[in-house]
Design a protein that fits this description.
With about 400 residues, the chain is of the alpha/beta class. The protein is built from 15 helices and 12 strands. The strands form 2 sheets. Strands 5-2-1-6-7-8-11-12 form an 8-stranded mixed sheet. Helix 13 (about 350-370) crosses helix 15. It is globular. The protein starts with a strand and ends with a helix.
């Protein structure tokens, strides 16, 4: 059966997860990726669509090869036309951008491209229905993407497309330091190109249950959940929150790579306790009615232990700077650290350890911006939040001594 897969953004998630899964499945006759970086486009075309990704396991790094990828730059008129047609013919698509805020930005707006291609699909019953995975690090990424697309096609897409949330607890990065690539023996994306994909081997990717009529998933390795929201929130306010906490603790200690934190029993214990006794209590309280092992005490303990162990995988060599970048975003009221604190508070727990992470992140932000009044900076970040709601958390951040 002829199937087309289309991805947006040729970064670590797309190049290290979606395209390899589509390639290895053997279920797709055409692999297409949209990318506006001209150097990446030229490099992959010169390699005739073949590239490499480095996969960090628990004891070594494996190199995998993906072949037959067609890369298109939507800023080029001819490429855009081909891309729109490919979207209309695709049965599965995936966005993997740095942030959901980029869905509808610039000439190469992903939302506009999708809306154009999906509208062709709606008009032609011979074209297949499709699932569009939103892989941005946000628990409402798919609904945000759908709304952005509807802004360009308000008539909607009927039963031709399902926008699917994803839960991707797979740590991925693009290594752009030539010295690191050589020192770690990484294989560049293509020969002579000064970038390498480095992703962990963990591959338990959760997606929304497909509800489209007559749809058969080609990315068959993904795990379907009838209600993905609890798992997406758990990944964001559990895994992501404590990954950030561990990163900021490492940054405070002047460490360069996350695996170096693994050598500190105190820091590892601190984050495990935050994961279980603050984030975990909040999440299990919120989803106490969920009939899933994850939300049991033993199930969550196993989840937290596995996640923290993977965060310090020495073969992943995850830079602390990557984990702690953009502290202003990570300090947002609905983002990982504060969101996890709010859940813990609702469950009757004082999130002192998470508050310490917020305090370190806030200091990093002040150092970057040159601002001296930490409380004013945090209050400004939370300016749209009612004063009563933010007052307790502000006090906790500035008084916690743990």
């Amino acid at each position: 059966m002829s199937r087309t897969f289309v991805g947006f953004g040729f970064g670590a998630i797309q190049g290290g997860l979606f395209l390899p899964e589509a390639f290895r499945s053997g279920n797709f006759s055409r692999l297409v990726v949209s990318e506006i970086d001209a150097e990446s486009v030229a490099a992959l075309r010169a390699a005739e669509g073949t590239y490499f990704s480095n996969v960090a396991g628990s004891s070594s790094v494996e190199t995998i090869c993906v072949e037959g990828v067609e890369i298109l730059n939507p800023l080029v008129d001819e490429d855009r036309k081909v891309l729109v047609r490919a979207i209309s013919e695709a049965s599965e698509l995936a966005t993997a951008l740095p942030s959901f805020t980029l869905y509808d930005v610039g000439e190469a707006s992903v939302a506009a491209l999708l809306a154009e291609g999906l509208s062709i699909k709606v008009a032609d019953p011979a074209l297949p229905p499709c699932v569009t995975y939103a892989a941005e690090n946000d628990s409402r990424a798919a609904s945000r993407l759908r709304d952005a697309c509807l802004g360009h096609a308000p008539e909607g897409f009927g039963e031709s497309v399902q926008f699917s949330e994803t839960v991707i607890a797979k740590m991925c990065s693009v290594v752009a330091d030539p010295a690191r690539i050589i020192d770690e023996g990484l294989t560049p994306i293509v020969a002579g190109f000064p970038r390498a994909f480095l992703v962990e081997s963990f591959n338990e990717i959760l997606v929304d249950k497909a509800t489209l009529p007559n749809f058969e998933r080609g990315l068959s390795g993904f795990l379907e959940k009838p209600d993905l929201d609890p798992f997406a929130i758990t990944k964001f306010l559990g895994h992501n929150a404590n990954h950030a906490l561990l990163g900021y603790l490492a940054r405070e200690q002047g460490l360069g790579f996350m695996h170096e934190v693994g050598e500190s029993e105190d820091l590892m214990a601190f984050v495990q306790e935050a994961f279980l006794e603050e984030s975990g209590v909040g999440l299990r309280h919120k989803y106490a009615e969920m009939d899933d092992e994850l939300f049991t005490e033993d199930g969550f303990r196993a989840y937290a232990k596995d996640a923290v162990t993977r965060m310090v995988n020495p073969f992943l060599r995850d830079p602390v700077a990557r984990v702690t970048r953009d502290p202003a975003r990570k300090l947002g009221w609905e983002d990982r650290l504060v969101g996890s604190m709010l859940l813990a508070s609702e469950a009757g727990v004082k999130p002192n350890r998470l508050a310490r992470g917020v305090g370190i992140a806030l200091q990093c932000l002040c150092d970057e911006t040159g601002e001296g009044d930490r409380e004013a900076v945090l209050s400004d970040l939370w300016r749209d939040v009612p004063g009563e709601a933010s007052a307790d958390l502000l006090e906790l951040v500035f008084t916690s001594k743990i």
